[in-house]
Design goal:
The structure is a single chain. The chain has five helices and 13 strands. The protein is α+β, with helices and mostly antiparallel strands and 261 residues long. β11 and β12 form a beta hairpin. The chain is globular and about 55 Å long.
Length: 261
């Protein structure tokens, strides 16, 4: 038996497009975006009476995942894998997600939302109202999550690192400040599944796409510097550019921001 679904719209956030940039949970996010519903489907009528709800459920597709895993390692700081059905992992046999987000307002076919864990361009399958008396059970048992208290850690930046992240974003690069907060905000990155290299007892280098973060591995992590992941040979004009970003890296090398040391 098979079922075929089509998106009713897509998330437009101007934010992350890679899975590593997605907040661990909507409750840990601090962002705003818009769901643009498709035209010619009478969705304007379908949205009537929704504006009075403070929160909504979004049913969406994990469209950037290509495989599923029966057991996954949640970002809770432990090293124990859990059954995927006992987690919110995107690596599911059917790549369907569910998220409760804050509804700001509705303008025509545009649904403005806040505090969400969806990537830019995520396909939306359905929208439902969040009904507190039916959907909230705060006294419920939380299974294995009761064994580990997951809190969001503050991620600090030196002025140089913050300036570098802003410069890269302003020049069309990825939002590295957000990526650092996502990757470092809940636990120490796992070197077995993330590109992490220890520099010394208190510092490590973490890779994100073609960029590198040098950070302090303290309880409150601090990003010290941002560097290109390319070598000098790879940045030569005649070198291949499979990701189309080497011009930005060359420009960044000349920008004067301090290199990790």
């Amino acid at each position: 038996m098979e079922f075929r679904f089509e998106p009713i719209g897509f998330v437009k956030s101007g934010g992350g497009t890679y899975p590593q940039e997605a907040p661990r949970q909507a409750a840990f996010a601090s962002n705003e975006g818009v769901i643009e519903l498709l035209p010619g489907r009478n969705f304007e009528q379908a949205l009537e009476d929704l504006a009075g709800f403070e929160r909504i459920w979004l049913v969406f597709v994990f469209d950037r995942n290509r495989n599923w895993k029966p057991k996954v390692l949640p970002p809770d700081g432990s090293s124990r894998k859990r059954g995927v059905f006992a987690t919110r992992s995107p690596h599911r046999p059917n790549p369907v997600g569910l998220s409760a987000v804050e509804l700001l307002r509705i303008e025509g076919r545009s649904v403005h939302i806040r505090n969400f864990d969806l990537l830019d361009g995520t396909p939306i399958l359905d929208i439902k109202p969040y009904i507190p008396e039916a959907d909230a059970f705060p006294a419920s048992r939380s299974g294995w999550r009761g064994e580990t208290a997951q809190t969001l850690r503050e991620v600090q930046f030196t002025p140089e690192a913050a300036g570098a992240a802003e410069w890269i974003l302003a020049h069309g690069g990825p939002d590295l400040a957000n990526a650092a907060r996502v990757q470092l905000g809940t636990r120490m990155p796992d070197p077995e599944r993330q590109r992490l290299v220890r520099v010394d007892e208190r510092r490590a280098m973490l890779a994100f796409r073609t960029w590198r973060f040098l950070f302090e591995t303290a309880e409150t992590p601090r990003v010290l510097a941002i560097a290109s992941g390319y070598t000098a040979a790879e940045l030569r004009p005649e070198a291949p550019d499979p990701y189309g970003d080497k011009a930005l890296h060359r420009l960044y090398q000349k920008s004067g921001f301090p290199k990790p040391s």
